């Protein structure tokens, strides 16, 4: 029994020694030089830890098969792991995006705005020249203002009765004075310059219309005008009815109303959409002295280019 036990212990020791030698041989083989396959196993090589190479986990799991790992279980030799895996034809190199230094959508928008501002600044001189030429054209006789006094058609008197409920315009004389100013910008499109010009023309029309109505009222007649900003009478009582510059009733006074789908645009027979229109209503006869004086002054103002 004792001899059997000794043989078993010696056998276990022999197996353990063989196992240790195999482990040392495998370590030296995996870390050895490829060009020197016949080099022996030394204690220095055995004591060194094997070289560790980190692989791209995403590439192993989701990408194509790695040629550096030919053995089952994605196992390969150390000297092959040092080689760079070549890119395939349909595989693109991955670029790492730095969140702190990478360009954001806001940065791109700022760059585009800066480019547009620089372009506008470069065109400033040409725009100023264009404005100067247009102002010269506006100063020519008959090219800045058009004032026409027309008798209101009978069919429209009933419509304007709701606009001026305090006056019985349906059974009295009613004349409409259209006050048309030529504009530099096209009124069919919106821009900051167009809006600024519209505000100035509106202010000029309101001040002029107030003076015209004051003079007509001083002679015992009724007169009022439509505020372009609200479409309602400026001097009269409040009413829900309106009369804007794109109202179809302007067609009865020589203008054209175009429907662009998204909005309507008033067109002058000579200036097109480069116009701003205001309207003044009165029951003063066309042949009255006060009306004749006002028309003469407007005509003189227009020809003087003031």
Describe the structure.
- Helices cover 42% and strands 11% of the residues.
- The chain is of the alpha+beta class and 306 residues long.
- The strands form two sheets. The protein has a four-stranded antiparallel β-sheet with strand order 1-2-6-3. A two-stranded antiparallel sheet has the order 4-5.
- β4 and β5 (264-267) form a beta hairpin.
- Residues 29-35 and 37-42 have low confidence and may be disordered.
Q: What's the SSE pattern? A: HHHHHHEHEHEEEEH
Gyration radius, rounded: 47 Å
Tally of DSSP β-strands: 6
- Give the integer mean of the pLDDT values: 75
Shape: rod-shaped
Strand content: 5-15%
Oligomer: single chain
Structural class label: alpha+beta
Strand order of the largest sheet: 1-2-6-3
> What is the tally of helical segments?
9
What is the CA–CA distance across the termini? 136 Å
Largest sheet: 4 strands, antiparallel
Uncertain regions spanning at least 5 consecutive residues: 29-35, 37-42
Helix content: 40-55%
What are the salient characteristics of this protein?
about 300 residues, single chain, alpha+beta
How is the secondary structure organized here?
Elements: H1 2-31, H2 43-47, H3 57-62, H4 78-81, H5 105-122, H6 124-138, E1 145-151, H7 154-161, E2 175-182, H8 192-218, E3 223-225, E4 256-259, E5 264-267, E6 275-282, H9 289-304
Antiparallel strand pairs: 1-2, 2-6, 3-6, 4-5
